[in-house]
From TrEMBL:
The lineage of its organism: Bacteria, Pseudomonadati, Bacteroidota, Flavobacteriia, Flavobacteriales. The active site is at 93 (proton donor), 164 (proton donor). Residues 70-250 form the Malic enzyme N-terminal domain. Divalent metal cations. Prefers magnesium or manganese. This is NAD-dependent malic enzyme. Pfam families: malic, Malic_M. Keywords: Metal-binding, Oxidoreductase. GO terms for molecular function: malate dehydrogenase (decarboxylating) (NADP+) activity; metal ion binding; NAD binding. GO terms for biological process: malate metabolic process. (S)-malate binds at residues 146, 398, 442. NCBIfam families: PRK13529.1. Residues 260-511 form the Malic enzyme NAD-binding domain.
Amino acid sequence: MEDNTGYSILRNPRLNKGTAFTYEEREKYGLLGMLPNAVETIETQISRITEQLENFSKPIDQYIYLMQLLENNETLFFKTITSDPSKFLPLVYTPTVGEACQKFGLVSRRPRGLHISIDQKDQIKEILRNWPEKDVRFTVVTDGGRILGLGDLGIFGLGIPIGKLILYTSCGGVPPEHTLPIILDVGTNNEEFLNDPLYPGLKIKRIRGKEFDDFVAAFVAAMYEVFPKICIQWEDFPGVDAIRILETYREKICTFNDDIQGTAAIATAGFISISRLMKKSFKEQRFLFMGAGAAAFGIADMLVKKFQRDGLSREEAYNQIWMFDVNGLLVKSRSDLAEHQLPFAHESEPSNNFAESILKIKPTAIVGVSTVGGAFNQQVIENMSAVNERPIIFPYSNPTSHSECTAEQAYVWSNGKAIFASGSPFAPVEFEGRLFTPGQGNNVFIFPALGMAIFATEATSVTDEMLLIAAEAVAEQVTAADFEKGLICPNVNDILKVSINVAEKVAEHVFESGLANVERPVNIKDFIKSKMYIPSYN
Ligand code: NAD
């Protein structure tokens, strides 16, 4: 039933302005009597929201409230989020979204996004055509297999694509009508869900192997047929699947994986900004990784590209990066290394002692991606402090309990010298009368801006260069004052301004490398701004 009455306008989140409808609009659309008498500004509406939110003590309840606002009035929702990003982003994305996914069956009020299950492989196009928007440009898709550090959350993982696309819009300006969250339901290995009568997904063990890959291939083909300008961002697929999917499609379609590439880009941005603010050449950095798995290779590959961009040969670049895995230092004499580990295995004595290796290798930075909480012990930090005036300590393992050291340990054991950034958040630390703000690598400075550049230019692929340029552009915007406080990323409250600058640089590269599908404008920054979604009733 098509209903264009005022009543239906009030229930359409894209059209609804609530109490901000003017008297003229109320008369025109048949809204008289549907609203209280006062005509309010969007600022007054935000004040009310802020006050109503304070009635909820738990972040999860605030999340539910904000999601309902999104379903009720999209403009007001995005205006609220962008009014105070440092307050609202943690409520609509990490850390609150993790709990929201765990309880998605209880917190979800109205389906948002698309559910595509593996038994619907032959109906994917039909499902995609049911989506009301016809020009979808950006999708975030997950199979719920490894949600944040929380494991297999089945179709409740959909909370992540929903949250991430909110960030594409609020932090990068990608218009919401061009975004689409998707969950691929391939079953779940979560026993609790399999036995829960209220779990609404497929109650089968996860389908793997060829059948899974064929389903993903059918999904990709259908997406391109129904939405020819689509960019697909893969999210929170289990490690091996994530790498394989990315490798399969990265050269063929416009796609990327934020867990792998976004994380690598923001870590690289951190090292670039530290080098710049220490007035040191990036080429002087030497890295020692604890952990030689998926995360290590994502980051190390990008560091190699950065070294090469700064003039080192490929071999020289590899020589600046050393790695430890569970069996010790990666050295040429080891016979147990995988193909992708070989370039990082150097001519050296084998070692099982990370702290001792620091004294020999003299890294300027150590990167923890081992999943071993506490692995950067006092000796490790002290040795880093012995070979560096300002040791760079990056424990990147998530969640907090897996972090290789805490912020406090890094500052105390290094006598306040450490430059610290982690994967999980840490509270500020007071040490000897000084307040240290631990840095955190936050991908939010990368993917929304990258998304905006792709959206504006209609880029046909996502290259490593685009990510590296995004990393450099983020690093450029960290100020000496931020760095003094301990921050290695810009202030999150400046996110939109930062994203515009990052998107400009990435778009410039897209045009230069012939990957754009639109004509190069005279002024790229103005062009980006003209395409951005700005939440406003006008
Ligand atoms: P992974 O299982 O692929 O790799 C773990 C690596 O650590 C392996 O090389 C293993 O040999 C090594 N290791 C284990 N115990 C060790 C020890 N005692 N000493 C030295 N090395 C040891 O895991 P991953 O996907 O690379 O993730 C690692 C951590 O990084 C996780 O905590 C994850 O949350 C975090 N992280 C991952 C990503 C990602 O994209 N995968 C991104 C950001 C952060």
